[in-house]
Specification:
alpha/beta, Diaminopimelate Epimerase, Chain A, domain 1, 20 helices, 27 strands
């Protein structure tokens, strides 16, 4: 349709909507449902519903969609009190879902030092020194987000590529300092933190972790994987001394910070990759008192004995009007690639002395899997390296075969970052969901080849095309606060595989734009067992809608990163509005 004709048609439709709003109410009330509460008009609606892939308008009554079609189609549903929002041609899509991130950690990251933007170790140390000047003696200084591979130059001195604690000791001599790596799978502690946690006197490595040491055997401050658990416990023990109401208030503030960040990015639902029963209790309170405005799908990260003891309380499905679901268990098979903790089939190309590590014995993980299948809970296991992925697939296959009566478990592998070509087809065959993070490809691409070699990177790194071809369901996300909780940046990385430096990282593994959108919508809804209610825009579905400033399905690649959420609807309620809609 020529632009002029399209503009005339849209103008006529707006006149019809306005006229209907002023007309006798019965004229606007087809059937017995009455008028809509909210109508979106003049939009470019990508429904992902095969019955009607594209539309202009959406009508909402209560929490659900009652009509999808042209402006003329929905005009009869506009009554005197219907709120009409003119999208002016903007793209409306099913509400975006963060498929793997850490909800309270995202909120918490807003109140500690954010180190992702620093370009050198000296910059990180300067930020710590500034914090120390205003901190009370003995108070912890925490930070997160540094990544040695993103600095303009290596830190000096360093051991195994990690900075040593000497500069932190000078910057904050009176304060324990703990700075977590961007991946969350390594950290650096200063001398005061090592003393406070008991690590200064440690002689060996803890199970599932490694203390980096200098040539004399002294701890450098770098802690890989579970080696920093004593630091975490030291901080937690001090927080435990807070009055219960103070502790809860702190957690609530973190949750509210995370929620505002997500809603402003168009995120309507969030798969929370690991929470304690304490956190779940708080989130349930927030859901019941109405302060939880997006949908949370929480994975339990507690010992098997605790989960078994509370089995009578599980699963929690759609509590408080669909705001909280708890039906999954989170576990770890290995660590991260950046810290060389990812468990690989062959040694690292840039450190032939290691192939990474498993952070949990297979036997222990299998016990969790048996508990999950028995209780009807979803199992979600972190696996980044190709060996970790193979071991988890082997485990899942054993458990599925032993319980053929348990249909459609929809178990997941979180990250599935490096998959051997021999294992790619097993995801689809076993029905295992690959919960991946497109943005990790863009962030990691500059150094992945150095870590694992060109051939292994080409065949198995972020192998989206291979996994999709196998019939696997891919769910997308950011792993926030490892990365910013930004679905647009993640979408752009998924469809371009453009690295931060501008080069393309094995572009033959790119997703199509529709595949990438599905990974953030329909696939994520299916992974949460909610495909009947969410994931597409169709009558009867929940009115979870994200409106974007750019048509990310058609604009040139270089315009995708500039897109922003301008309207976020959760169950028909406007939870974020940058349009100034009235």
């Amino acid at each position: 349709m020529p632009p002029a004709a399209r503009d005339r048609r849209l103008a006529a439709a707006m006149v019809l909507v306005a006229a209907c709003a002023l007309a006798v109410p019965t004229r606007c009330r087809p059937g017995s449902g009455g008028p809509a509460d909210l109508v979106l008009v003049r939009g470019n609606v990508a429904t992902l519903d095969p019955g009607r892939p594209r539309a202009q308008a959406i009508a909402v009554r209560g929490e659900r969609i009652v009509a999808v079609g042209t402006d003329e189609d929905v005009a009869p549903l506009v009554g005197p009190s219907t709120r009409v929002i003119d999208l002016a041609g903007r793209l409306a899509v099913p509400g975006l879902v963060e498929g793997h991130a850490h909800f309270l950690s995202l909120g918490r990251s807003k109140r500690i030092l954010e180190l992702g933007g620093e370009s050198s170790w000296d910059d990180v140390v300067a930020k710590v020194a500034a914090a120390a000047r205003s901190a009370a003696p003995g108070a912890w200084i925490e930070g997160r987000g540094w990544h040695q591979e993103r600095w303009s130059a290596p830190a000096e001195p360093s051991v195994e590529g990690f900075p040593t604690r000497a500069a932190l000791d000078r910057a904050a001599p009176a304060n324990p300092v703990w700075l977590r790596h961007a991946s969350g799978h390594a950290s650096i502690a200063n001398g005061a933190a090592l003393e406070r946690s008991g690590l200064a006197r440690s002689r060996g490595n803890p199970p599932g972790g490694r203390i980096v040491r200098d040539a004399r055997g002294a701890p450098t401050g770098a802690l890989v994987e579970a080696a920093d658990d004593p630091v975490r416990r030291a901080i937690e023990s001090e927080r435990a001394a807070l009055a219960p109401e103070e502790r809860e208030a702190e957690l609530r503030r973190d949750a509210l910070r995370a929620q505002e960040e997500c809603l402003s990015k168009g995120i309507v639902a969030f798969h929370d990759a690991g929470a304690s029963f304490e956190t779940i209790a708080l989130l349930r309170k927030m859901a019941l008192d109405g302060s939880l405005r997006l949908r949370l799908h929480v994975m339990i990260e507690e010992p098997d004995e605790e989960i078994a003891a509370r089995a009578h309380e599980l699963p929690i499905v759609g509590a408080a009007g669909g705001r909280l679901t708890v039906r999954a268990i989170k576990r770890y098979m290995d660590g991260a690639l950046g810290s060389r903790g990812a468990w690989m089939l062959r040694p690292y190309a840039d450190d032939p002395g290691t192939a990474g590590m498993s952070v949990e014995p297979i036997e222990k993980l299998e016990a969790t899997a048996r508990l999950a299948i028995e209780q009807g809970l979803q199992l979600c296991v972190h696996a980044i390296g190709d060996r970790a992925n193979r071991e988890v697939l082997d485990l899942y296959e054993r458990v599925f075969r032993s319980r053929p009566d348990k249909k459609d478990p929809r178990w997941r592998i979180e990250h599935a970052q490096h998959v051997d070509p021999l294992d790619a087809g097993r995801f689809g065959r076993l029905g295992v969901i690959a919960a991946m993070q497109g943005i990790h490809c863009a962030s990691d691409a500059p150094w992945v080849v150095a870590r694992v070699g060109e051939r292994r990177a080409r065949e198995g790194a972020y192998a989206w095309r291979s996994l999709i071809a196998s019939g696997a369901t891919i769910v997308n996300g950011t792993d926030a606060p490892v990365e910013a909780v930004d679905p647009i940046a993640c979408f752009a990385a998924s469809v371009t595989r453009r690295a931060r430096g501008g080069s393309l990282f094995f572009p033959e593994q790119r997703m199509t734009r529709e595949e990438a959108l599905r990974s953030y919508t329909a696939n994520a809804a299916w992974a949460a067992f909610e495909e009947k209610d969410r994931g597409t825009l169709a009558p009867g579905k929940l009115a979870d809608v994200t409106v974007l400033s750019e048509d990310i399905l058609s604009v040139p690649d270089d315009r995708i990163p500039g897109a922003r959420a301008v309207l976020t609807l959760v169950g028909g309620a406007v939870e974020y509005d940058a349009l100034g809609a009235r």
